[in-house]
Design a protein that fits this description.
The strands form 2 sheets. Strands 5-4-1-8-9-10-11-12-13 form a 9-stranded mixed β-sheet, sandwiched between helices. A 4-stranded mixed β-sheet has the order 3-2-6-7. The protein has a single domain, classed as 3-Layer(aba) Sandwich (UDP-N-acetylmuramoyl-L-alanine:D-glutamate ligase), CATH 3.40.1190. It is α/β, with parallel strands linked by helices. Helices cover 38% and strands 23% of the residues.
Length: 303
């Protein structure tokens, strides 16, 4: 049974996306936590920032957004990413190394938070360093060992910041994998999987790593949720795209929020599609959801 003090956590990188239009607060786990909090759940961001102006701005931004956080200040610069956009609004990233979120410490406060975490989203990027990888591993191990607890590995491959070891270990620790079609192809090669179509590849991963489900996004071609019992497919809505930064993170957040609220997988999937489509119409990864959407969201997810 869900308890009142249980929390949904975004675990990993927090950084500033330096876009052509200016800098925006981001990082997949931070985007995830913020959108979960907008959808009515108690959320928390876990990361590290530097003892610098950007670090102070990060915490002030979380305070302004009313997003709780457990963020350590460390002697490394706050993370930044240079983002360039294609004509279709598709982002490309140049991610700075040896920054604060590479050095997230595992503290007693973090262990206590893990004990009451009902769902977490983490990726491969923050595991590029031994310090943060160890913290993520310890956090996952300290979470409750219950069937209803969600451990979402939002794989989020970036540049060369991943290895076969990191991917396999993360797959063994999660129960939900979120991946896009390009990443699925890369993982198939990395793990020496047979050459299969997307459905067979996802079902193979479910069986190999005993997953509850695989969430597969395919851009404008739609998205899928695969379980051993069902396959849900939803078309991608046609919208005017401002940029796609953070759209996948909002998808994960909406899907997770709906599941925790008791929605069926198809209903949770539809909510995720709707929210991520809206995010694509906005600049940056953390826009405020309009009031016109909130009553419908609350009705759809029973929040």
């Amino acid at each position: 049974m869900k308890k009142k003090n249980e929390v949904v956590v975004g675990l990993g990188e927090v950084l500033w996306d330096c876009l052509p239009s200016g800098k925006q607060l981001g990082g997949a786990p931070a985007n995830f936590a913020y959108h979960v909090s907008q959808l009515g759940h108690q959320a928390c961001m876990v990361s590290a920032v530097g003892n610098d102006d950007l670090g102070d701005q990060t915490l002030k931004s979380f305070d302004k957004k009313e997003l709780p956080y457990t963020v350590s200040k460390v002697n490394y610069p706050t993370g930044t990413v240079q983002v360039t956009l294609s004509g279709a609004g598709i982002p490309e990233y140049e991610i700075k190394q040896n920054v604060a979120w590479d050095n997230i410490p595992f503290t007693p406060e973090l262990e206590e938070l893990a004990h009451r975490t009902i769902a977490v989203s983490y990726g491969s990027l923050a595991q590029r360093s031994e310090v943060s990888r160890s913290t993520i591993t310890q956090f996952l191990e300290a979470m409750p060992h219950r069937e209803d607890v969600l451990k979402i590995f939002d794989i989020n491959l970036r540049q060369t910041f991943y290895t076969k070891e990191i991917i396999e270990d993360s797959l063994q620790r999660c129960n939900i994998l979120k991946i896009n079609d390009e990443e699925l192809y890369t993982i198939g090669q990395l793990l020496d999987l047979p050459r299969l179509d997307m459905e067979d590849s996802c079902m193979t991963l479910i069986k190999m790593y005993h997953l509850k489900m695989v969430i597969l996004t395919c851009g404008t071609k739609g998205s899928y949720v695969f379980t051993q019992e069902l396959i849900s497919f939803k078309e991608t809505p046609i919208v005017t795209v401002a940029d796609t930064v953070g759209a996948g993170d909002s998808f994960s957040a909406a899907f997770c929020s709906a599941l925790l609220s008791g929605a069926s997988i198809p209903d949770a999937h539809q909510l995720a599609v709707n929210i991520s489509a809206f995010i694509c119409t906005q600049k940056g990864a953390m826009p405020i959801l309009p009031r016109s959407m909130r009553p419908r969201l609350e009705k759809e997810t029973c929040i």
